[in-house]
Design goal:
By secondary structure, the protein is α+β, with helices and mostly antiparallel strands. It has a single domain, classed as PH-domain like (Roll). It is 50% helix and 17% strand. It contains seven helices and six strands, in the order αααααββββαββα. A hairpin with a 7-residue loop joins strand 5 and strand 6 (188-194).
Length: 218
Amino acid sequence: MADSADDPQDPEGSPTDPTAEQDATNTSDPADASTADSADASTADSADASTPESLDPAALAAHTTDRRTLSPSVQVIWAVRVFFGVAVVGVLGFVVAGQLNVDPGLVLAGLGVLSALGLVWVHLRYRVWSFRVREDALYLQRGVLTNVKTVAPHVRIQHVDTSRGPLERALGLSTLVVYTAGSRGADVSIPGLGTDEAADLQQRVKEMAIVAEGGDAL
């Protein structure tokens, strides 16, 4: 009697083909790989395009400043305003004193006290006033009795001007005026700047605002 040999079967009863399984595992679509590479390249190019060269940290740092104070000459302008106010009060004081038969010497003494207090206020105001240009905003600090700290983000700055009144021109000073979006009134002013410093600060703030707006000119 002849013996017969059975072929090995897998659990499902089908012949096992290791080579076929390996081929099925390693099979991939070259078109899909190419599409994925193209998508990655497009994403990288888009990211590079969305980052302007002007946002380079070194370029931004070149337009920033340390803490700065105003020119000492600004105290002359503030003192003139104080004396003008004292003069107005003095005129009213003498009129009232004449009607009430008050000794004019008391009025003069009061005006002297007001003048002294005004000069102290001018000096303290000058010592407190400071400003600084940073990467994100223009920072200002001022105020004697009430200390005020103002932050004007570069992205909200719309226009930058310099102005010079008659007394400022006589003293060689300028005022920087920064117009911001969404603010009530005008805005932010830095008085008591030398003409060269005002021009330099105007250019710094302007360029930082242009960078923040993505390259739109002011």
